[in-house]
Amino acid sequence: MELWNAITSLSPPASKFYDEMFEGTQVRGHYEKVQAILSRLSIDERAARQRQMNRRLLEEGITFTLSQPGQSEALERTIPFDLVPRIIPGAEWEKIERGVSQRVRALNAFLKDVYHEQHIFQDGLIPRRMVLGNRYFRGEMMRLSVPGGAYVTASGIDLIRDEKGDYFVLEDNLRSPSGFSYIFKGRSIMTHDFPELYFSHAVRGIDRTLDAFRSSLRAMAQTDKSDPVIALLTPGSFNSAYFEHAFLAQQMGIELVEGRDLVCEDHKIYIRSSRRKRRVDVLYRRIDDDFLDPLAFRPDSMLGVAGLMNAYRFGNIAIANAPGTGVADDKAIYTFVPDMIRYYLNETPILSNVPTYLMSRPEEREYVLQRLDEMVVKETSLSGGYGMLIGPSSTEGERAAFAQKIMADPDNYIAQPTIKLSTAPVCMDGRLVSRHIDLRVFALMNGNQVHVLPGGLTRVAMKEGSLVVNSSQGGGCKDTWVLA
After folding, report:
1. What's the pTM value of the predicted model, to 2 decimals?
2. Cβ distance 161 to 14 under 8 Å?
3. Per-residue pLDDT tens for 231-289?
4. Cβ atoms of residues 319 and 175 within 8 Å
5. Which domains, and CATH codes, for the chain?
6. CB burial class (10 A; 0-12, 13-18, 19+) of residue 127?
C-alpha cells in the first residue's frame, strides 16, 4: 500500500493498522519535522539518498548471511536500511524502559531459582516437566554459582504494537541476541548521510551503551586484576552475524577469539599466543550451548573449547550469557513471564504478553486447531522466523500439515492470534510505502541494575503485507530515535 504517490500529497489512505507516523490523515506531532524535511526532497533525491546509505553499508562490510529455501549456498548481503527513522516520544519510551527492565529482572530470578531451589515448581506456578524436559535446560548448571548472579547479561526483548497502538512483548531472546551492531551503524549512517534530519531532533544518545556493556562483562570477572581479560567467542567468519561479533569486540576493546584460539590448562582458559598465553577472565559467547565444550555437550563440536565447563565450575572464568539461559526464552515458558514478575518481584507486569495458547493443553489445542487460519503457530525452540505457520496467509495444505505436527508433538508448539502489527513508512525508489515493523529492545544486566539501550532496533518486513521482520527472512531495519 503506497502512502504517498508524490510527496506533495501527504494524506495516507485509511488503514486498519496503527501507523507510527500518521493518525488518520494527520501527521503525528513528533513526526512533523520528518514530514517537513522529506517534503522538500524530490522522489529522485530521496532515492539517491537511500542508495547512498546502502552503498555505505556495503563499503563498510555491514552484511548478513541469508539462507534461501532451495538454495545450497547462503547469500551474503546488506540488511536493507531505511532512511525514515522510527521516533518514540520520551514518555512512551519511559514505560517501555521500565517494562523491559522489570521483565529481565524476573527472568534472571527465574533462572536462578530453576538451577537452585526450584521454588516455582514447588509452588505450582510452572509444571516441572515443562522446564526439566526443555531442550535448553542444562543439568550441568544445577547448583552452580554464577558470577554476580547474572544469568542474563545481554538480552533482546521483542515488542509489537496492535491496532490500538498498545505495546506487547512478542518474545524474549536471552541466549545470544543479535542486532546490537545495526543500531550503532544505523545511527552513524543517519548522522553522516542525513544530518539535517537527525540534528533537527533532540535524540537520546546511545554511545553510553557500549560502556555499559563492557562494564557488565567486567563486573563478572572473578579476579582482583585491575584490567581483566574479556574475550568474545565467535563461531568464525562464516557465521551470519560475524560482522556484529567483530564490531562489538573492536568497539568494546575486548579480544575476538574462536574456539581454536583458546586452550584449557589446570581448569583455566588461555588465549594461545606465540609469545605468552593470556588467561581469559570473562567469555562473552556468541555460540550455542551445544557447541561450547565438546567434553560437556556435543562431542563433535569444533567451535568450542574442551574443558571450558570445568573451568567455569571451578570459578576460573565467567560466561555471558550463562549456559542454560535458553530455557527462559523458550516460547512456551514465555507464557508464564507475567506470573514470574508477580512471583519473584511482587510487582504488576508493566508490559503484557501477546495472548498465547499452549498446545500441550487439550482445550487450548482444540480451540486453535479449529481456527488455524486465524493463528500464528510457532515451534517453541526455534527463532528467526523459522518453524512458523502464519494462518491468514497459509494454504489449506500447509494448515493440514501443521495440524498433524501439533497433534504428533503438542509440547513443541504454541499459537497466538494474528496481531495487526503497526506500520511505518519506508522509502522504496524514492516513494514512501507502508510496511509492518516490530522493535527489539536490548537490555544489559550488571548485578541488580539493568541498562536499557535507548531506542533499540526497529525491524521492518520489506515485503508488502508480510508480518515477518527477521533479517534471516529478508527483513530490514530503521534507526530508532527516543526523543529527549
Report:
1. 0.91
2. no
3. 999 999 888 889 999 999 999 999 999 999 999 999 999 999 867 889 999 999 999 99
4. no
5. 103-154+205-345 (3.40.50.11290), 355-417 (3.30.1490.270)
6. middle
